[in-house]
Amino acid sequence: MDPENRPVPMFKSKIKSSLPYTLAVAIIGFISLWIRMRPYDSVFLSNGFVKFTSNDPLYHMRTLNLLLENYPNRVFFNPMTNYPNGSYIHFGPLFDQMMAITALALGMGSPGQDLVNTIGTYFPAVLGALTVIPVYYIGKYLGGHKTGILAAILIAFAPGQFLSRSLLGFTDHHVAESLFSTLFIMFFMLAIITAKKKNLHFEDVLNKNLTVVKEPLIYSVIAGVMYSAYQLSWPGASLFLLVALVYAVIQYILDNFHHESSDYLGFTGIITFLVSAILVLPFVHPDMGFSLYYYSWFHVATAIGAVAGFGVLSFIQREFKNRNLKTYYYPLAILGIGVLGLLATRVMSPSIYSLIINAPHTVFGVQTGGPATIGEASSMFYYDGKFTLLRAFSNFTVSGFFVSILGMFVLLVSVFRKAKPEELLVLIWSILMLFAIYGQNRFAYYYSINVSILSAYVGGLLLDKVKWSQLSEKFKTTVKSPSDLQGFLKFVKVEQVLAVLAIAVILIYPVYGAALEQSTGSNDPDSTWIEACLWLQSYTPDPGMDYNAIYEAPEDGELFDYPDTAYGVMSWWDYGHYIETLGHRMPNANPFQAGIGGRRGSINEENQPGAATFFTAQSEEEATAVLEAVHPDPDKAGARYIVSDGKMATTIFMAMPEWTLDTAGYYQPYWTGSSYTYLPSMRYFDSMESRLHILDGNGLKQYRLVHETWAYQTQESVYKQVYNLLHGSSIPEVDTGYVKIFEYVKGAKVTGTASPNETVNIKTTILTGQGRTFEYSQSTTSDSEGRYEFTVPYSTEGPISGETQFDTAPAGPYVVSYGNTTREVRVNEEAVLKGEEVKV
C-alpha cells in the first residue's frame, strides 16, 4: 500500500482533533497569567523592596524562608508570635514545599533571597492560570468542547476573591486550594464516568479484569492524590469530602430507584479515599488529637470513614438487589445507618462526634460577635445584619451570579429526568459551595469555579439550541483556506450570531471588565506600616530570639521558655504578621485570631486579657492591668510596645468591642442640622485606643510615643473636632502619624513640695521624628504636707545604648508649675526605664 494512502492511526487522529482545543486552552491559560501579572509595579517596588500582598502571604514567605533555612525541617510551632504563648501553624505544608522545591531546583540547592522572593510572588499567579485546565475538562465532560472552552475563558477572567488571591504577590495557599480541589473533582468525575461506561462491578476487581478496571483505577488513584494535595494545602479540606459523600448518597439512591448497579461508584470512592488516607498519614501530628484545624488523626479518620461509607452503601445496595427489597426503603436504611454511626461515634469518640456535629455551622453558619468582623469569615449575603447581594455581584458579576443559579436549576431538572453522574456531581458541588459562601465569603474563590462552569453549561445549551455543532461541522468540511470563508458565511444563521453575541455580552465581557478593574494591585501593607515595622526591627532592643530557627513546641500545658529579654508588641490582630515578618518582633495578637482576648459566648463571661480588652480599656490603669495580665508571670508585662494606626482609631475601631461583646455607647447619634449622625462619644474617647492615637498619649503615665510615620488624610481630624466640642478643648484638628509606636515603661517619679492641697502642673513639648510638636501635660494636687508626685514616661536626655532608640522626645525639660512658681526638670532614660525618683 502507498504510504500516503495508509489509514491514520486512531491515536494520531485523536491528537489531531484535540489539538485546536489544546492550543485554545493554552492561549486562555497565558491570558489568565497575564491578567494576574498586571500588578507587577505594585509588588516589585522601584527601591528593590518586594511587597507581598496582605498579612497571610507575608507569613507564608516567613514559613517558606524558615523551611529553606532548615530544609527539610518545617516550622510547626512558632514562638515568635502570639507572645507569650506562641502559635501552632495550621497552614498546610504542600504550598510552601512546592515553592521551596522550585527555589532549590532553580537555585542549584542554594537559592538567594531575590530568587525566593521572585518564586513566591509568581507562584499564586501560575497556580491561578493552571486552574484553567481542570475547569476546561469539567466543562468538556459536562457539555462538550464548547462548554469546556467557555468555562476556561470565564475562569481565566473570574473576578473577586478567586482573582485577588491568585494575583502576583498574593502568596497564600488559597489558590492551591482552588486548583487541587478542582483537580480532585475533575479526576473523581472522570473515574466515575469511565467506571460507569465500562459497567464496572466488584467482580471485575476480584477477577482482575484489567480491561474494565484499569482506566477507572488510574483516575481514582489520581483523584485520591489530588484530594491529598488539597488536604495538604488546607486542613479544612473535609469540605470537599462532604461534597463527595453527599453526592454519593444521592447517586446511590437514584441508581437504586433506577435498578442500576452502583459498584462503579463504590469502587471509585473506596480507591480515592483509601489513597488519600495513606498519603496524608505521614503528615499527622499525633499530639493534635482530632483537631479540624491542624493535621491530626481527624484527617485520616474522615478519609477512612469515607472508605467505609462507600463500602457500606455498596453493600446495602447489593443486599437490596439480592433480597429484592422495595427501593424506597433504601434511603431509610441509609438514614438509619447514618444515625447509628453518629451514635456509635458519640460513644467511642466524643471529640470526633463534636467536630462532625459542629462542622456544618463552622462552614455554613453565619458568624456573630467578634468572628463576624473577620473580613473573609463574614457572610457573602449579610452585611451589618442586612441581606445584600452586592458582595456576590462584585465577586461573580451580576450576570454570572444569576446565570449560575439558572445553571443549577437546569441541572436539577435533568436530575429528575435521569441525570448523568457528572451532572449530579456538579450540581451537588455547586449547591454546597453556594451554602459555603452564605456562611463565609472567603469561599468565593471556590464558587467562582462553579459560576464559570455553570455559566458555560448554560451558554453551551444555548449554542445547542441554535445548532452550533452543525455549523462547526460545516466549518470543518467547507473551510480549507481563508478564501473559503466567504462561502461558509451563507450557512451562518441569525440566531447563531445572536447566541454568540449574547454569550459575549452577558457572560464574557462583564468578567473581563471586572478582571481588568480588580487586577491593578493592592496597597496592603501600605508604606507606613512597612516603615514602622522596619523601624521596630532597627531601633528597638533585640528580644533574644533566633529569628531563623525552628523551635520545639513546649510540653502540653506548659509555656514556651522565653529568654528574659523577650517582649511582646501589642497591636490589633490584623497587623500581627506585619510585626513579625517585617519587624522581626513578637506580636501579642495575630491573624490566626490568637491573642485577641475578650469574650466569645456571652457578656457574662470573664473578659479575657488581650488586644480587644487592652484597646477598649476605659482608663490607663485598666489597660495596664490587661497588659500585665497577658503574661502569666506577675513580674513581666505582656508587651513593651503598642502599635496603632489610623484605621484602628476610626474605621475599624468597633471590631475591638465586638470581640468583648460589649459594644454599646462608643458612638451616639448627634443632630448635625439636617439629620442624626453617629459620632464618637465619651466612652470612645475614654478608650485606650483613643487616648493613644487621637490624643498622642497626653497625660498617660507609663506610655510614651517613640515613633510615628507620616500622616494620611483620615477621619482623625473629624474625631478631634468632636473631642474639642465635647471637652471644650482645643487640640489641633489635624491628621497626625498614620502608624504610631508607643512604649510601655515604668516611668520616672518626679517628686517635690508645694503648698498643701495646691494644684501642681507638669508639661513639656514633644517633638516627633516627623517634625510635629504636641503638648504633654499632667495635673495633680499636693497632699496635706505639700508633697506631690508625677509619673512621667518621657526622657529629656535622649536614648541610651541597648534600649529604644526613639526619635520622639521632649524638645526641652519638663516644667513644673504651681502658683507663681515654675521649675525645670530634666529626666534621664534610666529613671524612666527603672522607675527611679527625680526630685524637683
UniProtKB/TrEMBL annotation:
Residues 526-649 form the AglB-like core domain. Keywords: Glycosyltransferase, Magnesium, Manganese, Membrane, Metal-binding, Transferase, Transmembrane, Transmembrane helix. It is a multi-pass membrane protein. Residues 747-838 form the Archaeal glycosylation protein B peripheral domain. It is an enzyme of class 2 (transferase). Its EC number is 2.4.99.21. The chain crosses the membrane at residues 21-37, 119-137, 149-168, 174-195, 239-257, 264-284, 296-316, 328-348, 396-416, 423-439, 445-463, 497-515. It catalyses: an archaeal dolichyl phosphooligosaccharide + [protein]-L-asparagine = an archaeal dolichyl phosphate + a glycoprotein with the oligosaccharide chain attached by N-beta-D-glycosyl linkage to a protein L-asparagine. Belongs to the STT3 family. PANTHER family: DOLICHYL-DIPHOSPHOOLIGOSACCHARIDE--PROTEIN GLYCOSYLTRANSFERASE SUBUNIT, DOLICHYL-DIPHOSPHOOLIGOSACCHARIDE--PROTEIN GLYCOSYLTRANSFERASE SUBUNIT STT3B. This is dolichyl-phosphooligosaccharide-protein glycotransferase. It comes from Methanosarcina horonobensis HB-1 = JCM 15518. The lineage of its organism: Archaea, Methanobacteriati, Methanobacteriota, Stenosarchaea group, Methanomicrobia.
